[in-house]
Every structure is written in C-alpha cells, then in structure tokens.
Q: What sequence folds into this?
C-alpha cells in the first residue's frame, strides 16, 4: 500500500523539467547577455575615456611630461586611435584574459585579484545578513500583520532605508569600534571574516530593509490563499504550513531582489570600504575614478556587470526550484 | 354556494401596496442615479488616502519640507554660506539654535537651506527619470516585437550599471558640478526600474477589452496608447516614482559625501555630513542634524509611496 485511496489509478506524473530544456534556456540567456555585456562595457568605456581630460596628464601627475614620452604613452595605451577602435582592442585583449596595465605599472588583473576576495567576502556577509534577517523578520511581520511587532519591524525598516548607508556606517564605526571597542575601526589589508562582520552588516542594511518589506508583502498575500487554508484544514501544523506552503510560494520576489542586489552591493562597497578603510574592489575603483585611471575603471565595472548578469541567471534558474510550475521554454 | 375560507376570519387580509401604473414612468426606472455611480479608480484611491494616517502624516511632513525648501530664509536669519571662524564649534544658543560647525557656519541655516538642494535634486531627477523610463517602457510594452527586444536590452544595459557607480564615474568627469548637472547624471542612470515597471504594466493593460473596443471604434494606436493604455497603466509607476524620489535624494547626498557631487561652496546635507565626520567624537550633533533632516525627508516620500500603493491596491484595502 502506498497510502493512496485508489492505488489502481495511476497518479498523474508531474512533468519533470528536461535537462535539455534547462540547457537550452541557459544557452539562450547567455546569448541575451552578450549585447548587454557589450553595451555596458561600451557605455562605461565612453564615460571613462571620452569625457576625460587627458589621461596622460593624470599619469604624469603634477610634473610636466615631455611630448615624446607623452606620445609613447599614448601609443602604449592606444589613446592615439579612435575611441571605438580603442574599445574593440580593449575587448579583444579582455577575451584573451589581458586586462591591461594600471597606471602604477602593475597589471590590472593582479590588482583586481588582490582586492576581489575581500569585497567578495564583504558582499557574502551582506547577502547572508540581509537574506536571513530580512526573511525571518519579514515572515514574522507578514504573519502578524497589523500587530505591534509588525509595526515596530516596519518602522525599523523605514528608518534603515531613510538613513543613508554612510551615516549608518559612521555610527556603527563610532559606537561599536571607537566607544565599545568590539569591532575594528579600520579593517585594513587581508581582513578576516570576523573583521568584516560589521562592515558587511552596514553594507547589507538597506537591502535588509527591502527584503523585510518584500517578504512581508508577499507572505501576507500568500497567507490568505486557498491552498494555505486547505493545508491548515487537512491538519498540517502551523510550522509545516508556513515553511512548506507559505514561505516557498512567497520567496520568488525576494530571491529576485537578492540576485539583482548582489551587483548593487559590490558597487555600494565604494562607500562602505571607504568608511572602514577596506582595501577591496570598492576602494580600488574609487581611487581609479578620482585618479582618472580609465583602464582600471572599465575593468572593474566590467567585472561587476558580469557578476550582476551571472547572479541574475542563477536567480532565474532558482525560480524552478521554488515553483515547480515554472518551466523553461526552449 | 361558496364557503368562506376559515383563515379569512382569523387572519386579516394582507395589504399589498401596488403602485398605480401611471406613477412609475419608464424613464424614472432607467434614469441612472449619479449620486451612487461607481467612482473611478483615482477617486476611490483618494477616498482611501484621506482615511490613512500614514498618508496624512507623510503629506503633512512633505508640505512642511516643501515650505522650508521654498522659504528657508523665513525660518532663520543666518546666512548658510557665512562662516565666522571666531565663532567655531559653538554650543546651541539663541543666535545659533543648533550651534556652529568647525568653520563657524550656522548649523540650522545649513540644514534649512540644504532642504532646497535635496528637494530640487529629488524632485527634478524623479521627473526626468520618470519621463525617460515612462516613455521608453510604454513604447517597448505597447509596440512589442523587435522594438521591445531592443529597448529591453538597452534598459538591461543601464540596469546592470548601479546608479551610484555610474553617477560617480560621470560626476567625477564633470568640471563644475551644480544642481542641474547632478539631476542629469542621476536621471541618466536612475530611470531603469521605471521603464521595467511601465513596460510590464502597459503589456498587462494593452490586451484588455476596453482597448480592443477603442480600436474597434476607430481609434488609432497613438490615441489608444495616450488616452487609454497609459492612464490605466500609470498607477504602479507613480508609486515607484515617489519611492525613487527618496532614493535620488540619498544618491545626491552620497555623491556629495564622496566629494564628487556638489562643490563645497554649495549647501548640501551630504557634504555637511561628510564635513561633520572628523568631529564625530566631540560634536556628534553636527552629524545628527543633517542626517536627521535627510532621513525625515526620505522617510516622508517612502511613506507617501506606500500609502498611495495601498490606496490603489484593492487587495490591500479589504483589511
């Protein structure tokens, strides 16, 4: 006996996603990424190079430079060619794994390699904090809509959104770092996970508030759906109803937000890394922007765009896990 | 002979009122009672709004903020750009109710005049971004096909570059930053979520029966789009635009904080917060006042957006 009332009636087989369909879908999405990737790099390239004054003057700094050296440098960075050609040369090199040489003479890829793990850790901490705390608080808030705890959580989320990240950062640094001494004031080079905990929380704070609000709205909507009443009526425990029937169905908008947020977090690291003096992608990028180091700006932003696109693809693939009704059309 | 029914004597005859035929002309029956006609979506939303305390609070705050932005000089006699170094770091007094900064600027005047900068940046960036995003999104959704695919990819391209990141790269290149420049920079990168929402909303509206009916009555596609599709698709865009206004204000403050936004000579909360940072240990209130003003302003617009969304959403109404 398999517990069914009519074992002789074959259970209608749930259509399983075909592996080939998923592969087709990923392939199609990767194709769609190509124009977005090219367009984003072109825009950043135009922004960084065309509107800039003279990058050679930026290299030279305050000291004047002889025209011969300037011409040689221009040829070295392909600055003597039209912008579109420059961009194509840049792309060609990029596909061969060559990001170019930074203004300080070190290969850009080496500098990114040194800074990336730090920012990646920071972003992971931020994402974990915003998803765990955001979803838990959102579920509590959504299930107890209209109660005191819901109102309190909602007010906290509004406050976190309204106060800019850099103010939250200052206050966290001042209170936790300077006054209480429980967290490092300056994180510096090669930080441990522990040292990045407070900066990560600051980075994820605004997103935490958005995750909370999204989860709350979504939970409150699903909680009154028919299938939830059915699940309760057939005797499922409250925990079972919440985890299996409410949460899973209401997570899709939340997961979409978190996926799109990963790219924004890496960009937002500019502010957080500046406050806590973390030598990651954000401070690398900000220094490059201020110095007018265009190749570095383009490389870092390109990397961020790739991360953003891949994170969004992963999110779209997660949809099918959350909602088996979603199918990937060929 | 006919026998009377027994009940007749027990129960008095029921008296039915039958209206005389000539008193109910058909016109009276057919006439539409205009006093109880179904209200439009916006009228209904307006009725819900004025009952919502969140709306009343945020609207009152916004009126105050707009008043301060328009007439900051009415509330303080001090010049925000006059720094008297001999009166630096003063505690609150009757002359300087919030004290003075390290350079001897009056904090209250800085906070009040900073309102104008933030409100102008937020409001005009919102208009610019909503125009760009609204037009592109509506066209993409309504025209569809290859046109939609191209516009959607363009939106994706700008969406992939975070607002702050794109704004910093351009802002750093601009020689003389001023308020219109900040608005332009933020608008260029801030329109993508409006475009996405407008597109989705237009797609869901354009296949509804009233649009088909309008086409059947001979309306061309431009009339359809402008008169029927957009007015019915714009509600979620208005909600997003209201919340975005707060986001742009924070973005402007972040740019000024990073030193690539408005120059030090202009009055901006972001710049003031940045200036207050070194004195955090000794004068935390220098950081507190502009931060608080910024937070209240952003909060008001987010709350207004929330209230408008709740009022427009029939599901949220039945609570």
A:
């Amino acid at each position: 006996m398999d517990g069914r009332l009519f074992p002789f009636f074959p259970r209608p087989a749930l259509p399983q996603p075909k592996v080939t369909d998923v592969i087709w879908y990923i392939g199609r999405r990767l194709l769609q990424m190509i124009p977005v990737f090219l367009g984003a790099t072109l825009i950043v390239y135009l922004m960084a190079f065309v509107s800039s004054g003279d990058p050679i003057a930026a290299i030279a700094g305050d000291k004047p430079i002889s025209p011969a050296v300037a011409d040689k440098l221009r040829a070295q960075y392909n600055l003597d060619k039209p912008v579109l050609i420059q961009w194509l040369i840049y792309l060609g090199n990029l596909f061969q794994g060559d990001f170019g040489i930074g203004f300080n003479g070190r290969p850009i890829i080496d500098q990114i390699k040194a800074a990336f793990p730090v920012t990646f850790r920071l972003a992971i901490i931020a994402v974990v904090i915003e998803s765990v705390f955001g979803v838990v608080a959102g579920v509590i808030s959504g299930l107890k809509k209209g109660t005191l705890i819901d109102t309190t959580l909602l007010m906290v989320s509004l406050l976190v959104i309204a106060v800019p990240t850099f103010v939250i950062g200052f206050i966290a640094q001042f209170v936790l770092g300077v006054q209480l001494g429980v967290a490092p004031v300056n994180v510096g080079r090669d930080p441990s996970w522990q040292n990045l905990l407070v900066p990560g929380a600051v980075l994820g704070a605004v997103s935490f508030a958005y995750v909370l609000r999204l989860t709350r709205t979504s939970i409150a909507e699903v909680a009154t759906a028919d299938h939830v009443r059915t699940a309760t009526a057939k005797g499922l425990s409250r925990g079972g109803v919440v985890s299996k029937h409410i949460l899973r169905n209401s997570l899709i908008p939340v997961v979409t937000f978190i996926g799109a947020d990963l790219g924004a977090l890496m960009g937002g690291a500019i502010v957080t890394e500046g406050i806590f003096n973390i030598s990651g992608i954000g401070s690398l990028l900000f220094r490059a922007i201020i110095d007018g180091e265009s190749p570095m700006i383009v490389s870092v932003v390109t990397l961020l765009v790739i991360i953003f696109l891949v994170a969004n693809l992963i999110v779209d693939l997660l949809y099918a896990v959350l909602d088996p009704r979603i199918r990937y059309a060929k | 002979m006919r026998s009377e029914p027994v009940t007749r004597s027990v129960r008095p005859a029921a008296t039915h009122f039958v209206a005389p035929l000539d008193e109910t002309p058909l016109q009276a029956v057919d006439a539409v009672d205009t006093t109880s006609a179904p209200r439009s979506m916006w009228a209904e939303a307006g009725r819900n709004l004025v009952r919502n305390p969140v709306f009343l609070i945020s609207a009152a705050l916004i009126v105050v903020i707009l008043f301060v932005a328009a007439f900051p000089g009415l509330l303080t006699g001090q010049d925000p750009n006059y720094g008297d170094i001999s009166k630096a770091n003063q505690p609150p007094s009757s002359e300087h109710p919030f004290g003075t900064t390290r350079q001897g600027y009056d904090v209250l005047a800085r906070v009040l005049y900073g309102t104008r900068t933030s409100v102008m940046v937020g409001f005009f960036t919102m208009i610019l971004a909503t125009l760009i995003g609204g037009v592109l999104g509506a066209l993409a959704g309504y025209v569809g096909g290859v046109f939609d695919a191209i516009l959607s990819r363009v939106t994706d391209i700008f969406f992939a570059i975070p607002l702050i990141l794109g704004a910093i790269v351009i802002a750093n290149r601009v020689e003389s930053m001023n308020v219109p420049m900040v608005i332009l920079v933020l608008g260029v990168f801030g329109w993508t979520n409006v475009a996405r929402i407008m597109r989705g909303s237009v797609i869901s509206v354009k296949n509804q029966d009233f649009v088909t009916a309008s086409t059947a009555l001979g309306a061309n596609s431009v009339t359809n789009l402008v008169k029927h599709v957009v007015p019915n698709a714009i509600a979620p865009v208005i909600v997003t635009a209201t919340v975005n206004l707060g986001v742009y204000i924070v973005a402007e403050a972040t740019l000024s904080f990073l030193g690539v936004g408005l120059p030090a000579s202009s009055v901006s909360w972001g710049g003031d917060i940045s200036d207050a940072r070194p004195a955090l240990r000794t004068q935390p209130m220098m950081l507190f006042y502009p931060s608080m003003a910024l937070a209240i302003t952003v909060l008001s617009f987010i709350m207004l957006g929330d209230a408008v969304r709740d009022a427009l959403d029939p599901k949220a109404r039945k609570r």
Notes: The two ends of chain A are 39 Å apart (CA to CA). The mean pLDDT of chain A is 81.
